[in-house]
Amino acid sequence: MKGIVCILFLFSYTVSAQSYKTESGEAIFHSKVPLHSFTGSSEHLIGLINLDAKTVDFYLDLATLDTGIGKRDRDMRETLETDKHPFAEFFGKLVSDFDPSISKKQTVMVEGDFKIHGVKRNVRIDGTLQMTDQGLQLYASWILKLADYNIKPPQILFVKVDQEQEIEIKAILTPTEN
Q1: How far apart are CA 100 and CA 135, in angstroms?
Q2: What is the CATH number of the domain that holds 66?
Q3: Which residues, listed in sequence order, are joined to residue 46 by a DSSP beta bridge?
């Protein structure tokens, strides 16, 4: 009997813990130039999802992005003007249903404001959420158009970085204390 009570208590805690956070999510971008592509990433994505309020809040210190080549990283920071605009930020709402009692991966959509390079735009982003033993697993991806955020793609001679950048985020968010 004590075992059943313990299991029910743990289950009710898991379902009632409706805020989840990460301080070590991963943000990845995929970029192209003619005849070449490269990827940059950071494992410093910070975020909070509140399932009761359906709020989603993430930000990334852009100086933590790394492509593996120092000069390219410096050029990227200069292009993004990280001295003036150090963060990429998203704040919005979960606009689709998510049931934390289901352990299968669920397709979700968020809508809100994404800000980078000092420009804020309303966006809709598709992704997945899945409740796991580790916490709330998040994956999302979207296309960011540099011109939408007044970002001039870097250019060397006649070779220019593509206007469209594929963005991905991945994270395991753990319950916050109420």
Answers
A1: 10
A2: 2.40.128.110
A3: 59
